[in-house]
Design goal:
- Two copies of one chain form a homodimer.
- Chain A is an alpha+beta fold.
- Chain A has three domains: 5-79, Orthogonal Bundle (Arc Repressor Mutant, subunit A), CATH 1.10.10.10; 88-128 and 231-349, Beta-Lactamase (2-Layer Sandwich), CATH 3.30.450.40; 136-229, Enolase-like, domain 1, CATH 3.30.390.
- Chain A is 48% helix and 18% strand.
- Chain A has helices at residues 5-21, 27-33, 40-52, 69-79, 88-99, 105-120, 173-187, 204-209, 211-231, 250-261, 263-271, 321-349; strands spanning 56-57, 66-67, 123-127, 136-143, 148-155, 159-166, 233-236, 278-282, 294-303, 306-316.
- Chain A has a five-stranded antiparallel sheet with strand order 7-3-10-9-8.
- The A-B interface holds A 103-104, 137-138, 140, 142, 144-148, 150, 152, 154, 159, 162-165, 169, 177, 238-239, 242, 247-250, 253-254, 257-258, 261, 346, 349-350 and B 103-104, 137-138, 140, 142, 144-148, 150, 152, 154, 159, 162-165, 169, 173, 238-239, 242, 247-250, 253-254, 257-258, 261, 346, 349-350.
- The first copy, chain A, binds a DNA duplex through residues 24, 26-28, 38-42, 44-45, 47-48, 58-64.
DNA sequence: TGTTAGCACTCGAGAGCATAGAGTGCTAAC
DNA sequence: GTTAGCACTCTATGCTCTCGAGTGCTAACA
């Protein structure tokens, strides 16, 4: 059986309708609303073919048709167009989320998640810029009380992270400044993952004397990379799932929300997708069993040319893909520009 | 109608049973399981009285009885005993949550919420130590790139907060150190809410020259107090609500989860309760309409003698109050001790 | 006077059944 | 190739019936 143009047209109509109605679509609906030139009987024949091809399914004999995961895949790859364009308000909301002046990266990320979930009515995920993909610009140790210090790690995209460590009481502020200077001199321009205290020239004497200190310093640096990479997934709009009839069942809603609760899995999902600009996984294409009746759409965002993080949306497979992709595209670009801007300003200052 | 001892006993039995079963309790159940010396008929008469007194209600004529909010109030105030003691494992879990060596206050708070929700199976809330209740120990400005600096605010309970600000490019590291020194000298020992740059002696010349800078510095300090106070409510175990039959209905679960999503309301609720060691509001005692079929139990925790934050549990009015209170009591103390310990160590250092 | 056995009564949950309506597949005619 | 017509299927809905848990009341009992 070959795939005629008309079959594709019918398939698209079924999906478009099902996306908004969530109710199995019958041949008469298609005939009336989408293709009045053909009778329901004609559509019916075609739909039977589409079912045989594995693109449509029937929940039961006398019900309409529902698109299969494969159908959504086809839809996403070939069928869907630019329908559901963003309105001026949408665009404004996106711009505003990232453009409000702030140096708090976390805050920008949170607003991003909030706006994406609001505009799409699905659950939004944002993977914060990943440190391991950034280069170090500066390490600064700041004495707090005697015996403790703050480690501030500055990267090329934004100030990233700080952490408190114990330091030998023998070190005074000047010592810390000197250590900071050397570490910075040695590592500025390197990826964070490369940092290794043994590489610091002229540090070996101090190293020997203050073994414990440097050890904990390294632990902090490593933790910073690891923790940040594992922890910085921001989510918003999880309750949106209740808007969709497929999750009116408390059991399913619970399973979904519980899945979202395991940040590390979310992280792995998002982090594994930063290679391509967009990534869409539909239903059973998802490796996670709890996600096999959902779709996940992600877009990476870039600082300069480097992809540093990603934004994603989770919703039912019956998702408004065109709109979601448009939101993610614009949001990703805006976010990247914002981070790049911070970078740029800093460069100008120097 | 007067309240006999036996009526109280029956009421307690009804509540104890309903707390675990979630099913209206009949007279026969009470007679068999709790008071075999009396027949179901006797219990029945007493229950009818209790209903007339507004302590029990019937969902419909031929069903058992359910405790009213007033009954829970009575139970909490007079009836409940020390049943459901914490096990050794419970105690260990609580201790471990706060004792693991860390200087990251946020991390301790998160673990606290996690353990409380795990041990109680309800939703846990933790209000982080409130800055406005702390005294300042040190303000430190750290130059990052030229034109930006990190403001670190150290309080007497823990390092609290840092934030990035723009600074005049004319200021070098020494200037920042000097400003930090003066601010610290002037404000150490004061409550954070008192901080006002105009009060700094000898600062007026610089103030005039660097108006914008000081303005933004003050903004940061104020924001730090406000933001921290408004934002630092950590929640865990929200999905636990699905464990309870009264929330099997997706609509109710949604309403509950949506309510938890508005952090500022949670904040106000928790912050308004730091005067008394414990606070229990049951059902309609709650001002928030969305919470009127829930109970909220909170306990404050103290650093030294000052209450600085609180821990809370939200669940159905049919809540295991004794256990929840025991968990909160121990957790509150442990948390207070942990923060006090940080304080103590710092003092030793000086 | 307090307690209890007995009994009629009430109400909701759940099973069983009939009906309406949406949608299908197939056939025959255009 | 398209379509009208029709028998068929299946679900959702509403109705009735029954079962069982629990009640309130009365009368007997200690």
């Amino acid at each position: 059986m070959d795939m005629s143009q008309r079959k594709l047209e019918i398939l698209k109509a079924v999906i478009d309708d099902y996306i908004v109605s969530a109710v199995p679509v019958g041949s008469r609906t298609i005939s009336r609303k989408y293709m009045p030139n053909f009778s329901s009987a004609t559509i019916r024949n075609e739909m039977a073919d589409l079912e045989e091809m594995g693109l449509l399914t029937q929940p039961h004999t006398s019900a309409g048709r529902i698109p299969s995961d494969r159908a959504y895949r086809l839809y996403v790859d070939q069928l869907m167009g630019g329908e559901a364009m963003l309105t001026k308000e949408d665009v404004a909301a996106i711009r505003q989320a990232v453009n409000r002046r702030t140096d708090e990266m976390e805050e920008v990320i949170r607003r991003t998640a909030s706006v994406v979930s609001e505009l799409t009515h699905y659950t939004a995920l944002v993977l914060a810029p990943q440190l391991r993909r950034m280069t170090l610009r500066r390490i600064q140790l700041v004495g707090l009380t005697r015996g403790t210090a703050l480690v501030v790690i500055v990267t090329d995209a934004a100030v990233a992270k700080d952490s408190i460590i114990r330091v030998p009481e023998s070190l005074d502020d000047d010592d810390l400044a000197e250590i900071s200077r050397r570490l910075t001199q040695r590592f500025a321009g390197h990826a964070l993952t490369d940092v290794d205290v043994n590489m610091v020239p002229g540090m070996s004497d101090e190293l020997r004397r203050n073994r414990d200190f440097f050890h904990s310093l390294m632990t902090v640096l490593e933790d910073t990379v690891v923790q940040n990479d594992g922890g910085e997934v921001v989510m918003d709009g999880a309750v949106n799932i209740f808007n969709y009839p497929e999750y009116q069942d408390a059991e399913r809603a619970k399973a979904f929300l519980q899945f979202l609760h395991t940040r590390d899995r979310l992280y792995r999902m998002l982090a594994g997708r930063t290679k391509r600009e967009y990534s869409i996984t539909i239903g059973e294409e998802n490796a996670e069993p709890d996600l096999q009746d959902c779709s996940l759409v992600t877009a990476t965002y870039r600082v300069g040319n480097r992809p540093v993080g990603s934004i994603g949306v989770i919703g039912p497979t019956r998702m408004n893909y065109p709109r979601v992709m448009q939101v993610l595209r614009l949001m990703g670009r805006s976010l990247g520009e914002t981070f790049a801007q911070v970078l740029h300003e800093d460069r100008e200052d120097q």
